[in-house]
Amino acid sequence: MMAKAALIDAIALTDRGLLATQAQKQTILAAIANLEDFNPTPRPVEASNLLNGDWRLLYTTSKALLNLDRLPFCKLGQIYQSIRVDTASVYNIAEISGLPYLEGLVSVAAKFEPVSERRVQVKFERSIIGLQRLIEYNSPVTFIQQIEAGRKFPAIDVPIKSDQQQGWLDITYIDNDLRIGRGNEGSVFVLSKT
């Protein structure tokens, strides 16, 4: 599909949005809106077979995520979002590199609840921030398995009061390998299935 290829080309050199110029951002938002018009899945929240799985962030306008790259001695690595439809769970994982042996991880675990055919309400439950070596992190899949098993990590591992941290996300496009979402803070997210 040409609209999908145009979006992938537009975001290719932006390092998930970190390097995007104002002109590129406008071009990308136009390409996103164009692709959303061709969403092959009219009821994305109900398409659990497409939604479920591990996703890698390709592009975002989220300042909260992009600002992780601005911390001293830190470089933002891969960002993942893993969705487990059967437990209505979502896990956001940002890998941080920097000084040798001090690679970090910023993760948030949340529950989601469908509120329409394309919107989910998200309630954040747990935040984990620490060094990958101490957490014994090697992949999002094994990390999530440890979270779901109830492991307490040697890190800043704290519960989040859900009445303080919640939001919503509209899934505006989803196919077998690409998903676009728009959040309550005006951010846009483009992710590919891993």
Describe the 3D structure:
The chain is α+β, with helices and mostly antiparallel strands and 194 residues long. The chain has one domain: Beta Barrel (Lipocalin). Helix content is 24%, strand content 40%. It has six helices and nine strands, in the order αααβαββββααββββ. An eight-stranded antiparallel barrel has the order 1-2-3-4-5-7-8-9. Strand 8 and strand 9 form a beta hairpin. Helix 1 runs antiparallel to helix 2. It is globular and about 45 Å long. It starts with a helix and ends with a strand. The model has no long low-confidence stretch (mean pLDDT 92).
Low-confidence stretches: none
Give Rg in angstroms: 17 Å
Secondary-structure-derived class: alpha+beta
CATH class: Mainly Beta
Number of strands: 9
The end-to-end span amounts to 20 Å
